[in-house]
Specification:
The protein is of the alpha+beta class. The chain is built from six helices and 15 strands. 26% of the residues lie in helices and 27% in strands. The chain has a six-stranded antiparallel β-sheet. Strand 12 and strand 13 form a beta hairpin. The two termini are 59 Å apart.
């Protein structure tokens, strides 16, 4: 008399067979694994061993010196590390087990760096192009006076204290005129009513902001153009001159710095990104 096995009996037989599969071969495997009966998943036994069967990890830093020291320390002459530099985003990644075409690696042993903007540079970028009232621009000038130089319309230097005082004391006078000229502090347009700015003090027309933009890079000078918009109340706009050109120069400095630090070391540099 034949008997049919129900589904639970079949499952138990399957679990029994799978649970004993290749147990004798576990110790000979590079990374011991076993098959778990429930769902027949493959599980690594590495976490139960005293040591990992291979080294891998991810190191993150904002320090150029630490990134270079770590990369050189884990690179090997017979298996050089690859460092991929993304200068546009001010970051880089060293991969120590990328392997070769014949012997590809997992590319999961890495070190990464993303440069951090300094506080003065963040303050400079935050002010760029913003509309500022008299109090806001005066306080910003005073807060960052250690990094600033001020210049009048003729290019003469003036103290930040005098520049802050001048923007605080500027007044707006309304005059009836058919034409007036639009410039940094005087305007000309065809309007029923024109607005002319005047101040009891010499107005600052431009500034120079000197700071280290990113930790580990060199100091740079940024030129700022100061404009006064025509409105019922004084509105100032500080704009960085040729900001994109400055950012490109900073990115090139970062790229060249890393390439120079890895020169003669077992680390090959590439411009771009890598994804395994």
């Amino acid at each position: 008399m034949s008997q049919q096995l129900d589904s639970s009996a079949i499952k138990q037989i399957k679990d029994l067979v799978l649970s004993g599969y290749h147990l004798n071969d576990i110790h000979s495997l590079a990374c011991p694994t076993t098959i778990l009966p429930e769902g027949t998943a493959v599980a690594s036994l590495e976490r139960f061993a005293l040591e990992r069967y291979r080294f891998r990890g991810a190191m993150d830093t904002t320090s150029i010196d630490d990134f270079v020291r770590y990369s050189v320390g884990y690179a090997q002459e017979d298996e050089k590390a690859r460092c991929f530099i993304d200068a546009d985003n001010m970051l880089a990644c060293s991969i120590f087990n990328i392997g070769t075409l014949d012997n590809p690696g997992h590319a999961d042993n890495v070190a990464s760096i993303k440069l951090k903007k300094t506080a003065p540079f963040r303050a400079l970028l935050s002010i760029n192009g913003d509309h500022l009232n008299q109090k806001q621009i005066a306080e910003w000038l005073e807060d960052w006076s250690d990094y600033l130089l001020a210049f009048d319309a003729d290019g003469g230097s003036m103290s930040i204290a005098n520049a802050a005082q001048a923007v605080r004391r500027v007044t707006i006078q309304k005059t009836n005129a058919a034409d007036h000229e639009d410039g940094d502090f005087r305007g000309k347009k065809t309007l029923m009513e024109s607005i002319e700015a005047s101040s009891k003090d010499v107005m600052p027309a431009a500034f120079e902001f000197k700071c280290v933009p990113y930790e580990g890079l060199g100091e740079r000078r940024f030129s700022l153009r100061n404009s006064l918009l025509k409105s019922s109340d004084p509105v100032f706009v500080l704009r960085i001159v040729q900001l994109e050109a400055q950012e490109e120069a900073i990115a090139n400095e970062f790229r060249d710095l890393l390439i120079g630090k890895f020169d003669g070391k077992p680390v090959e540099t590439f411009i771009g990104n890598f994804k395994a």
